[in-house]
Amino acid sequence: MTVSVYYRMYTGQTEASAIFRPMRSEPPFAAQFMHAMRKDLDVDSLLQNNRYDTIMQWLKEHVQHYGCLYDAGEIIKRATGEEFNVNYFLDYIEEKYTKIVCAVALF
Description:
By secondary structure, the chain is mainly alpha-helical.
């Protein structure tokens, strides 16, 4: 599951409304939430089996549950067990763009 898929589910966007959304609009903390979610769930298997309900339940329990009670930094800490760490997002970007560059190089 990519950060893009997570972001669409987290914000309630449909596939059609998010298809052409540029990378710059993805929040950097989504990659950190994904990392934490993967510790608890087999996300790829859930997505392959259309088990979005399990993923959404994790998001409700670990992220959305707090609503406006806390600022973003505190929600990240509570959901992931650590302070915001930009390295998760940087790893995601590196992986994503490495795949793109490799695909372009094949043509």
